[in-house]
């Protein structure tokens, strides 16, 4: 079984997601998408598999979203894809692909929905939040 994560090591949610995948017993293919962005076709496939639109995958925080005026509804899906390919930081992360599906793992425990072994036991995120079997403790 192959699990792939489109990962940004500078992102806490992405690091937590990677740790959850590894705790489940999988060693994923890690694609640092800022260094190796997906092709246009792959990005279109990922968006479709997640049941999203390109606009829904846009990341605003810490990106040139505002400077580029991407909130303007004039931009078509094709335009937004062009922006994401030109500025991969605009692609929200982490995206995880498994034979069971594709998810934008925000929050990171959403990855449990597509892991072959989601019963990972207790897991504590970097910020101290405890996650148990995909549910918050307490």
From TrEMBL:
CDD domains per the UniProt record, alphabetical: ArsC_ArsC
Annotated keywords: Arsenical resistance, Oxidoreductase
InterPro entries, alphabetized: Arsenate_reductase (IPR006659), Arsenate_reductase-like (IPR006660), Thioredoxin-like_sf (IPR036249)
The keyword 4Fe-4S is annotated on this UniProt entry: no
EC number: 1.20.4.1
GO terms (BP aspect): response to arsenic-containing substance
Reactions performed catalytically: [glutaredoxin]-dithiol + arsenate + glutathione + H(+) = glutathionyl-S-S-[glutaredoxin] + arsenite + H2O
GO MF annotation terms: arsenate reductase (glutaredoxin) activity
Lineage: superkingdom: Bacteria
Entry's family note: Belongs to the ArsC family.
Protein name: Arsenate reductase
């Amino acid at each position: 079984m192959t699990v792939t994560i489109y990962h940004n090591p500078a992102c806490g949610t992405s690091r937590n997601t990677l740790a959850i995948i590894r705790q489940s017993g999988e060693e994923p293919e890690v694609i640092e998408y800022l260094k190796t962005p997906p092709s246009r076709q792959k990005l279109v496939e990922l968006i479709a598999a997640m049941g999203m639109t390109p606009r829904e995958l846009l990341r605003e925080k810490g990106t040139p979203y505002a400077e580029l005026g991407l909130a303007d509804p004039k931009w078509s899906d094709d335009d937004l894809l062009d922006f994401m390919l030109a500025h991969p930081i605009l692609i929200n992360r982490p995206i995880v692909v498994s034979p069971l599906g594709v998810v934008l793992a925000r929050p990171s425990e959403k990855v449990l929905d597509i892991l072959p072994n989601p019963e990972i036991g207790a897991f504590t995120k970097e910020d101290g939040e405890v996650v148990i079997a995909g549910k918050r403790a307490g």
